[in-house]
Amino acid sequence: MSIVERALQKAQAKAKGAPSTLQSPAEHDATLAEPIAVATMAEPTAVVTQQPATGEALAAAVHDPKALVRIDVERLRAEGRLPSVDRAVQTEEEVRRIKWPLLKAIEGGEGVAPARNNVLLVTSALAGEGKTFISLNLALSIVRDRELRVVLVDGDVAKPGLTPSLGLEGKPGLNDALEDTNLDVSTVTYQTDVDGLYFVPAGTWSPHAPEFFAGSRMPQLIEALSRRVGRGVVIFDSPPLLATNEAQVATRFAGQVLIVVRAEQTEQQAVLDAIALVDKEAPLSAVLNRCSPSPLSRYYGQYYYGHGYGAGYEHRYGRPSGDGPGKGSAGA
């Protein structure tokens, strides 16, 4: 059973004992500065399950309860958004190594450049380097291991990645909130059935998206999400830096920028050109994705993940096939 499936089971177990009416902000989550989304915790029977409006409104900006979005593990695996069963354990460890310094920067930890805020922008130089894979797996790792809340934003409004994968095509999202100044960000924030994980879809595409991103509305929405997630993290899955203007603009509002580079494919000059577009005030980190393991890393990988597969391993992660993990992080 993978990290996602464990988190999903935990969330659904909590759902079975949840009340049928909406909770007050304090009851909903004492760790959140403000309520992020409104949704009952009833177990979903489809990818998106609409819930009736019951109870008192949590905030004046909230009009209707949001749909509870199901994290469909098998679908996400098939689409390359989550690692295969064979690679689940090693990917979990790799994502932890990415996560810890990012969280340390948000907390102002010693030895790292402090982040301006708790907003992490994940991008790449070009399309197909794995930024959406990193964004989703990083979000799932944070909400499980640190018990922090995460708002995952599909900021690639021209070519959404997670929005269709989560069954939210055609639903109001980021672009709608940017265009309509009367639309509160909470009305486009959806609660998932993974405890602590919220999602903002890309929304309705508009040819004026670059102007929306560069306008005064964007920093207001980012600030609202940053405030409402409290001690948590806002992960912004951005468009590629060299493909659109939106990504460059969005780096102005991020506390940190994580650039994903696909090994043995992305040219060095493309990476340098992308880095030059990042706001100079934002701490910048990089992830080398889909790299071939060295003999030493293969040895340790076999020791931890390939040696002694047994009932305990299979109960947690599923039965592996072949000789264990292959190349580095997969995904789109």
Describe the protein.
The chain is of the alpha/beta class and 332 residues long. It has helices at residues 3-16, 25-28, 73-78, 88-106, 131-145, 162-165, 174-179, 209-214, 217-228, 246-250, 268-277, 295-306, 311-317; strands spanning 48-49, 68-69, 119-124, 150-154, 190-192, 197-200, 233-237, 256-262, 284-289. The chain has a single domain (3-289), classed as Rossmann fold, CATH 3.40.50.300. It is built from 13 helices and 9 strands. The protein is globular, with a radius of gyration of 19 Å.
Short note summarizing the structure:
Helices cover 36% and strands 12% of the residues. The protein has helices at 3-16, 25-28, 73-78, 88-106, 131-145, 162-165, 174-179, 209-214, 217-228, 246-250, 268-277, 295-306, 311-317, and strands at 48-49, 68-69, 119-124, 150-154, 190-192, 197-200, 233-237, 256-262, 284-289. The chain has a 9-stranded mixed β-sheet, sandwiched between helices.
Runs in which pLDDT lies below 50 for 5 or more consecutive residues are 15-33, 37-66, 300-332
The CATH architecture can be named as 3-Layer(aba) Sandwich
| Helix and strand sequence | HHEEHHEHEHHEEHHEHEHEHH
Strand % is: 5-15%
Widest sheet, order of strands? 1-2-5-6-4-7-3-8-9
Q: Helix segment count?
A: 13
Shape: globular
Largest sheet: 9 strands, mixed
Q: Bin the helical content.
A: 25-40%
Content-based structural category: alpha/beta
Strand element count: 9
> pLDDT average, as an integer?
76
Per CATH, the superfamily is P-loop containing nucleotide triphosphate hydrolases
Q: State the end-to-end CA separation.
A: 22 Å
What is the CATH fold-level name?
Rossmann fold
CATH class descriptor: Alpha Beta
